[in-house]
Amino acid sequence: MPDRTTRLVASIADILTRRAGAAFAAQGLPDSLGRVVESGRPDLAPYQCNGAMAAAKIAGKPPRAIAEAVAAALEDDDLIETIEIAGPGFINLTPKTHVYAMRAAEISNDALSGAEKVDTPRGVVIDFGGPNVAKPMHVGHLRSSIIGDSLQRLFRFRGDRVTSDVHLGDWGLQMGQLITEVARVMPDLPYFDESFTGPYPDESPVTMDDLQLLYPRASAACKEDKARLEEARQATRDLQAGRAGYVALWRHFAAVSKAALETDFAALGVHFDLWKGESDVDALIPGMVEDLKSRGVTHEDQGAWIIPVAREDEKRELPPFLLLKSDGAALYETTDLATILDRKTEQDPDLILYVVDARQADHFEKVFRAADKAGYFDRTQLEHIGFGTMNGPDGKPFKTREGGVLKLADLIRMATDKARARLEEAGLGQEGSAEEREAVAKAVGIAAIKFADLSNLRTTNYIFDLDRFVAFEGKTGPYLLYAAVRIKSMMRKAKDQGVAPGEIFIGADEEAALVRALDGFALAASEAYDKRSPNYLCDHAFTLAQAFSKFYANCPVLGAEDEAVKASRLALAALTLKQLETVFSLIGIDAPERM
RNA sequence: GCACCCAUAGCUCAGCUGGAUAGAGCGUUGCCCUCCGAAGGCAAAGGUCAGAGGUUCGAAUCCUCUUGGGUGCGCCA
Questions:
Q1: Per-residue pLDDT tens over the stretch A277-327
Q2: Residues 6+ apart with CB under 8 A from A466
Q3: Any atom of strand B under 7 A from CB of A376?
Q4: Which residues constitute the domain of residue A329?
Q5: Could you tell me the distance in Å between the CA of residue A554 and the C1' of nucleotide B33?
Q6: Distance (Å, rounded) from C-alpha A136 to C-alpha A404?
Q7: What is the tens place of the pLDDT at every residue in A487-508?
Q8: Which nucleotide is nearest to A393 if distance is taken from CA to C1'?
Q9: Å from A576 (CA) to B25 (C1')?
Q10: Is the CB of A332 under 7 A from strand B?
Q11: Is the residue at A139 inside a domain?
Q12: Which among A245, A268, A291 is the end of a domain?
């Protein structure tokens, strides 16, 4: 039996890092030099440490001498098979095969599939989605929703206490525009009669479809006509001042919109803890403004109340934070600041993340600085998680063929249609019921969209190409689902044959490589967490699926001659499936039983 | 004008705290199903990492400049 005196309880790279770090420390050098990573030259060894070269400067010794001392110290290590020095001082490490077996067993028994919890869990509010009342969700909301949802899943997974908030756009000028538009179309409604004493009807005078038609019309009219715009502004002020008819009408807008939004988010598989909106903090604004005035944080400038946030030592021309417009009305900056106050009282988070289009970077910088300056919230605990836009094939923000914005619901339907066509074309998943086939098509469509979005670097723009996303070959969501489904199929077959997973041991190279891939999850999860970038999770899922495919092609599982090999390989397959599904749960996709 | 994001294979993109021969996927050209789902595997071709300096034993990565593209910049959200 292999030597099992040492338990790992960390990734293989981390354990080797500790061993190498100790060897550096023994030479009086910083243990951080011992960092071991997966090798860039897997033909030489699976892991490498480059610390000796960096150490040469500190120690004033040739790097090879340092590397040799490290190698000598680790020569008899119970985890290391070979340790070799190459080139100027690269230390190449090959772990003993039982290290892989031990690590596989650990990951298998681990609730987090090998990932690690954060050291100190924090309370985190994640603000994302950000849809508006009266406007249907469109592709512009897609990234915020998908990235934000993945982040809330990941932060929870790693142990933080997360509160997600959709932060509905329900309170600005757009509401006044809408109210005045409805007044034009249906002037006889009681909402516009100031002498009306109520009660107002329970039934909304407008449907979601009506709103979608009325809002763009109102918006365009206000752009063209100044008087029309002033009318909308006045209505906005009246609404915010509590004019009963407007408030009643506004409630209908909100309720009708929310119902539609809930449907969209449900289709996307995105959940929010809170459905708060800008209007919810309206009541906090007068007190906040008073507080800021009395403490001299804000002052009047050109008729408006501002908080200067530009700094002397920087060249950028950051405009001041606008607390109140010259007409006394609040802006979205105002509600964002008030929302910070609200969250401080309600959740008292250690961190607030705003998953919003990168184009709003300046806006958030102003809000964060203002919050800090007012003493409401520390700047370091506020983060704008910006993202690039989704562009069409022409490299410009995505538009439909008609030039309009594509609704989210239509996008999902398009993806599902394509997925269904591909499934039928390939003759896959056709044995189930019509309902099952439809569910599979939808799962594939959603996985295609989400994976394509999340696998891009968060900060860059990306080109939307549905055909590429829904392709079943290559680095796509559907391919990942396929990889998982193939394992599920194998597990069913194993059960039928009475084969059970057993103890994992490593014989073939592909088995070791598969465990190395599984082992990489801890790093992927922490990178994704630290950088607030789910693309590390996507990369990991794909790397793992690829490693499994190689294993699958070269290592017969149920066809293995030896019963112990069969049981070990089946356990590896089961473990891969488990971790794959864990990663899926973090990027919000779901593998069906068959497809 | 100022600030932010970006430029890597024909196309779409990765590249962690600077490390060896810059990686995937698609596409192209071969090969592999009497064998667990070939939506797969193996192999080949394909690169002045936008350009120029600098720091370093070592730069796609860090610094400066230039070019080219995207975005934002006082009372919309």
A1: 999 999 999 999 999 999 999 999 999 999 999 988 787 889 999 999 998
A2: A414, A415, A418, A448
A3: no
A4: 123-166+273-352+362-386
A5: 13
A6: 12
A7: 999 999 999 999 999 999 999 9
A8: B12
A9: 21
A10: yes
A11: yes
A12: A268
